[in-house]
Amino acid sequence: xxxxxxxxxxxxxxxxxxxxxxxxxxxxxxxxxxxxxxxxxxxxxxxxxxxxxxxxxxxxxxxxxxxxxxxxxxxxxxxxxxxxxxxxxxxxxxxxxxxxxxxxxxxxxxxxxxxxxxxxxxxxxxxxxxxxxxxxxx
Length: 138
Hints:
Blueprint: H1 11-43, H2 51-71, H3 74-95, H4 101-132
Helix pairs in contact: 1-2, 1-4, 2-3, 3-4
C-alpha cells in the first residue's frame, strides 16, 4: 500500500509561526552572544589568558552564522542548530562548577531556546517555500 501523503499547513497558519520563530531565533542568538561577551569581560577567571583571544574563540562560530541568521536563511538556522550544541555542552559543564553555575544554566537555557526556535524556523520556512511553489498535497 502507498503511504498517504502529509498535508502541508496553510499559509495563514504558517506565517505568524514563521515570524515568531525568526524573531525568537534572533533574540536568543544575540542574547547568547551578549552572555558570552559579558561573562568573559566581567566575571570569568581566565587564569592569565588574554580575554580577547578567549572571546574570539567563543564567538567565531556564531560570527560565521551571523550573516545568514540576519538574512533569515533557513540553512544558516539549520547550521545554528548544530553549532549551538557546543554552547549547550559548555554550559552543562559550567553548571556543575559551583562558581560558574548561574552562567552555566543561563548558557544551557539560551542555547536550548535557540536550538528549538531555529529548528522550528527551518521546518516552517521549508513548509512555506513548498506551499508557495505549489506543492500542495491536500
